[in-house]
Amino acid sequence: MREIRIAKVVINCCVGESGDKLTKAAKVLEDLSGQKPVFSRARYTVRTFGIKRNEKISCHVTIRGEKASDILERALKVKEMELKKKNFSQTGNFGFGIQEHIDLGIKYDPYTGIFGMDFYIVLERPGERVSRRKRNQCRVGNHQKITKEEA
Description:
Blueprint: E1 5-14, H1 20-33, E2 38-41, E3 56-63, H2 66-78, E4 94-98, E5 117-124
Antiparallel strand pairs: 1-3, 1-5, 2-3, 4-5
């Protein structure tokens, strides 16, 4: 009952500009996950970076289930199975980034180029759904929550 499992893995690839480069990054995420990525927009204009408000600047994909653990295993091999203490949050979730997507086992394509990406992993215990369900919603006790040390 108290075993920890992976709820979801979110992979974010921020390009910083819209257009051809962003569509190439979306193609990389689609090849990696097998799912269609979602585009994120800029919150506000930053003139020094040349970003306009509501311009598409990044894409991300959320992966759950068995595929999430497979992709996480490949990503941790790139990091040599070691993460820093500051990568873990107080709620037991953690995240890290990689510099090149070709380290994950995707074949290099000169047309696409090389993209870095961030991985965010959300952990949970069985019974976490009671805090999110629509009917008969309740709080999750401290005994059931994941701490930084347990992750």
